[in-house]
Design brief:
The protein is an alpha/beta fold and 460 residues long. Helices cover 50% and strands 11% of the residues. A hairpin with a 6-residue loop joins strand 2 and strand 3 (101-103). Helix 6 crosses helix 18 (425-457).
């Protein structure tokens, strides 16, 4: 009698000879290049599906329904009436005779400005930003991969742009995922933040070398990398994107070289405040006056680039899933943040006390952990427990996972880049609700911080 093995687990009765036949040849280091090339071809193929014939990404159009529902707070009949009364305003284009009018985001921004100038003062046609206040820098960080860090950053940037803010994105992750989302082209590390960090170090080295010369000591040589970096300003590495009010400083694999170069510079000049490199350079080049919000996408590791991104931040967002492992990992991330920045403060303040100078302390306007990819049916209890332990640090808003996320990702688009006609109005409206709510929670944080700064500037 033959025993029925169909009910056995799949790891029983595996034939070694058959397994050998499926195995293939051993892998050499040269094979990695072939695998990488295959991934590059596949990535380019997928990316091209979100691009135009000229190889550039192009933002979709926005319908009258979408504009009046999500972007400009006016009734649709009034919107149409204003356009008719003002023929110099963008009138949109119809894809069919007598069909709905569609507008570019540039045109939407022009229309928003028109309504803000002549419309009701009780309505928010333009988002709040107090006069005289610089841009806010927002870092999104966690050293646990797969928590939705880049996706969260990208969608917050898109939300802010649709809201009317002018946005700059800094991609500090050498994987360059954020750069790919916005269609960035980065040839080498000289089109990333690397020359900005090098320039900051070079400026410090010049001052230190002058002190050495004054003391009769030999200066530290200034190599070609530093000399070239002096020629580069932040504006030189900023590139426009297919979003009219989102610009990008991109990243690519060579940016990772910074993690090896920065400690070398630090060893040469112990007095160099490497954690201030990004902040000082952006301020010196006037970038914080040119934009409303600067989003910083950090690598999933606490290296020198991440330290720069975290130290520069006014607002720190930490995405995590509602799972034990992600909760545990995030706790360790905060522990590492404490030890890293406390160590920097201790080292700096020891010298400051010896020289009779003011001590330094890092400060963030707000820090929030944000639950992403949330499934209320499965994760409600754990999310509530996390909220109980983290209190205000954990945002009460939880970003749901929806089918729209997967469908938009397959077409190499963000949620706000997806055309609702690929779904239907109701599905689209439900799908974007969680991202609108995520942005609303962030915007409350942003406006509260700006308002506090505004009142402090007024002496209240």
């Amino acid at each position: 009698m033959v025993k029925d093995t169909s009910s056995l687990p799949p790891y029983f009765n595996i034939d070694p000879d058959q397994a050998l036949a499926e195995l293939g040849d051993p892998i050499l280091s040269t094979d990695f290049a072939e695998i990488a090339a295959a991934c590059t071809r596949g990535r380019d193929d997928l990316s091209s599906r979100g691009m135009q014939e000229d190889g550039q990404k192009k933002l979709r159009l926005f319908s009258t329904w979408e504009i009046t529902k999500y972007l400009i707070p006016v009734a649709t009949p009034h919107f149409r009436r204003v356009l008719k009364q003002n023929p110099e305003l963008p009138q949109g284009k119809s894809e069919t005779e007598g069909g709905a009018k569609w507008f570019t985001l540039d045109e939407v921004l022009r229309l928003r400005a028109h309504f803000a100038e002549g419309g009701s003062k009780a309505k928010e046609y333009k988002p709040y930003r107090p006069k005289g206040q610089p841009a806010k820098l927002v870092s999104v960080a966690n050293f646990k991969g797969g928590v939705g860090k880049t996706s969260t950053t990208a969608h917050l940037a898109m939300s802010a742009a649709l809201d009317g803010y002018k946005v700059l994105i800094l991609d500090l992750d050498s994987q360059g995922s954020m750069t790919s989302i916005f269609g960035g082209k980065v040839a080498d590390e000289w089109q990333t933040v690397f020359p900005l960090l090098a320039r900051h170090y070079g400026t410090h080295l010049r001052r230190e070398n002058q002190g050495r010369l004054d003391r009769g000591e030999a200066p530290i040589p200034m190599d070609d990398t530093l000399s070239d970096a002096f020629k580069i300003k932040t504006q030189d590495v900023i590139q426009s994107t297919h979003w009219p009010n989102i610009d990008l400083i991109g990243a690519q694999l060579n940016l990772y070289w910074s993690e090896f170069q920065i400690p070398v510079w630090r060893m040469q000049a112990r007095g160099w405040k490497l954690w201030d490199a990004l902040t000082d350079t952006l301020e010196e080049d006037g970038v914080l006056d040119d934009y409303d919000i600067v989003f910083i996408d950090t690598p999933p590791a606490l290296g020198y680039l991440t330290i720069n991104g975290l130290a520069a931040a006014d607002i720190l967002l930490v995405p995590l899933g509602a799972s034990f492992l992600e909760f545990d990992s995030t706790g360790r991330f905060f522990d590492m943040l404490h030890s890293t920045f406390a160590s920097i403060e201790d080292g700096e303040n020891m010298a400051a006390r010896a020289l009779g100078r003011d001590e330094m302390a890092f400060q963030w306007d707000a820090v929030r952990a944000v639950v992403t990819r949330y499934d209320g049916a499965q994760q409600g209890e754990l999310a509530a427990l996390m909220q109980a332990y983290l209190g205000r640090t954990l945002s009460p808003h939880r970003q749901d996972f929806t089918a729209l996320i997967g469908q938009a990702g397959e077409s190499v688009n963000g949620i706000y880049e997806a055309d609702y006609r690929d779904f239907n109005r109701e599905t689209y409206a439900r799908g974007r609700e969680t991202f609108d709510a995520t942005y609303a929670a962030f915007k409350r944080l942003l406006l509260g911080v700006w308002r506090r700064d505004e009142l402090e500037a007024q002496g209240e």
